[in-house]
Design brief:
The structure is a single chain. With 257 residues, the protein is of the alpha+beta class. The strands form five sheets. The chain has a five-stranded mixed β-barrel with strand order 12-13-14-15-16. Strands 7-11-10-9 form a four-stranded antiparallel β-sheet. Strands 1-5-4 form a three-stranded mixed β-sheet. The protein has three domains: 99 residues, no CATH class; 89 residues, no CATH class; 52 residues, SH3 type barrels. The longest helix is centred in the N-terminal third of the chain and has 19 residues. The chain is elongated, with a radius of gyration of 27 Å. The protein is built from five helices and 16 strands.
Length: 257
């Protein structure tokens, strides 16, 4: 009796969640003969992925988050077809349990993807990657490339290990998932010194809409590329904040930015 009551409550919760369009965990959907399971590829659910007999590829909304399930009722599909003025496919299940199609990547595959991206980049402080420490990971099957962002590197030479955030990109280069790897980097001797030394002459670039003006300036402190430092204009002596673009150019930064 208690088991039957629990099943009735569970079914009611699942029905209420579907009525609101909620994404519900697979554990709440149960295993029912009238519910089919479909894995979809990408961030949107399309009718042709759910029903093979469909002749029109309607967009039925967002795919469920990774690790979750979305239940699409036959009534929802019929309403979408009616709204789009297309024929309702034949043999539509009463309900379709939708999950995101995943792909298992080994540690080696993730490391190779990171190295491929690194080959198209110029790493800060002329660093080189000696090793990528990754863990196996399940990622959306539609991912196309991996990018990563290095943290600020120390001013020293030799071997260092840094935790690094990686991003998996899908269609239209949209970020679809993130992870973390550890990179073993080799920093050359020049990495022990600032990219821009205090007192170095730099060109300050000031942008206002489509107008761009350049002026001679002096760095008032040591700086690395990407950091914001005060610079002194020549010959007025006015001090402005600027971001280091490279070893010879800095761009004006508005106050409060």
């Amino acid at each position: 009796m208690k088991t039957a009551l629990a099943l009735l409550v569970l079914a009611a919760l699942a029905a209420a969640a579907n009525a609101r369009g909620d994404v519900i965990p697979p554990s709440l959907t149960g295993s029912r003969a009238d519910t089919s399971h479909v894995e979809v590829l990408g961030a949107r659910v399309h009718l042709k992925e759910l029903v093979r007999s469909a002749t029109d590829d309607l967009d039925l909304g967002a795919s469920p988050p990774i690790g979750s399930t979305r239940i699409i009722q036959r009534l929802e599909i019929e309403r979408a077809c009616t709204s789009a003025n297309v024929a309702v496919p034949k043999k539509v299940p009463n309900a379709i349990r939708v999950t995101r199609k995943m792909r298992h990547l080994s540690a080696t595959e993730i490391a190779d993807a990171v190295r491929t991206q690194a080959a198209s980049m110029t790493l800060p402080k002329s660093a080189t990657i000696s090793n990528v420490r990754a863990m196996p990971l399940d990622v959306p099957a539609d991912f196309q490339r991996v990018s990563f962002d290095l943290p600020k590197l120390p001013r020293r030479a030799g071997m260092i290990t840094v935790p690094t955030s990686i991003t998996f990109h899908g269609a239209d280069d949209v970020a679809i998932m993130r992870g973390v790897v550890k990179l073993d980097l080799i920093l050359p001797p020049e990495a022990a010194f600032a990219d821009i030394a205090r007192g170095a002459s730099v060109t300050l670039v000031i942008k206002r809409g489509l107008v761009e003006v350049s002026a001679a300036a002096v760095a008032t402190t040591d700086a690395d590329i990407g950091s914001v430092i005060p610079v002194t204009l020549k010959p007025s002596g006015r001090v402005l904040r600027a971001r280091a673009l490279d070893k010879e150019h800095v761009v004006f930064v508005e106050e409060g930015s």
